[in-house]
Design a protein that fits this description.
Layout lengths: L5 H20 L5 H17 L3 H19 L11 H20 L4 H25 L7 E2 L13 E2 L1 H22 L2 H26 L6 H20 L3
Antiparallel strand pairs: 1-2
Helix pairs in contact: 1-2, 2-3, 2-4, 3-5, 3-6, 4-5, 4-8, 5-6, 5-7, 5-8, 6-7, 7-8
Length: 233
């Protein structure tokens, strides 16, 4: 259900403009990244069944992700279009599918939140896990690896991923008050984050996939997880 109130729409567009200028001026996103971020935000208020909650989940993902990425003691490069696409494409696809198949909007909306949950969980797992006092282990064989190694996981990172899933699950619950769906969205964060790590360890380390492709797989896994189990409802 798109937003039809001109005043409400105007406020949202002003917000997106301010968000874009701030992100670009502070070098959080490059110009192309800003465009993609806005495309996802506009799709949320245009195609999403709950425009404000859908937009809110996108904004929360970007804000919390950027806060985690800019913590001290860790160098953070400006996110470019490929970073944004890797994290946002599955969620955008869910919104487009809602437009094409409105009769399945509720299920696809669950997939949208699953994708956002996985994207935020993976971002927090990587950024917060960096501060773990214990060395990460490779998710495929549990052998210790250096910090920053693709496929490396820590308990701190897993806890951060769980937090990311909880945040998006709360947003989902505020829109639908569906306990089963809320649990799925929460778990989608852990599922997507760890699948991202598995593909990173198996394929990214061997340069068979790049970071963007692995991020897309991880986020898409969160969406697919929610949709498949959501069919049980």
């Amino acid at each position: 259900m798109a937003i039809n109130d001109p005043l409400e729409l105007g406020i949202i567009l002003v917000f997106l403009l301010v968000f874009s200028l701030f992100s670009y001026r502070k070098k959080l996103l490059d110009f192309e990244g800003v465009l993609i971020a806005n495309a996802v935000g506009l799709a949320a208020i245009t195609f999403g069944p709950n425009p404000m909650i859908d937009l809110g989940s996108v904004v929360v993902f970007f804000v919390i992700g950027e806060i985690a990425s800019n913590l001290p003691k860790k160098k953070h490069e400006k996110r470019n279009i490929m970073n944004v696409i890797g994290n946002s494409l599955p969620a955008l696809v869910m919104l487009i599918l809602i437009l094409i198949f409105p009769e399945h909007a509720i299920l696809l909306e669950l997939g949208f939140f699953g994708a956002i949950s996985a994207a935020l969980a993976d971002t927090l797992s990587s950024e917060i896990g960096y501060y773990s006092k214990k060395m990460p282990v490779m998710i495929t064989n549990f052998k210790p690896v250096k910090k920053g190694t693709d496929g490396g996981v820590t308990l701190v990172g897993e806890a951060a991923a769980l937090f990311g899933g909880i945040v998006i699950a709360i947003l989902y619950f505020s829109a639908y008050q569906n306990v089963f769906g809320t649990i799925l969205v929460l778990l989608a964060g852990l599922v997507g984050s760890n699948i991202d790590s598995v593909f990173g360890g198996l394929f990214e380390t061997k340069h068979l996939l790049d970071k963007t492709q692995v991020n897309i797989i991880g986020s898409a896994s969160g969406a697919v997880f929610c949709i498949l189990l959501g069919l049980l409802i």
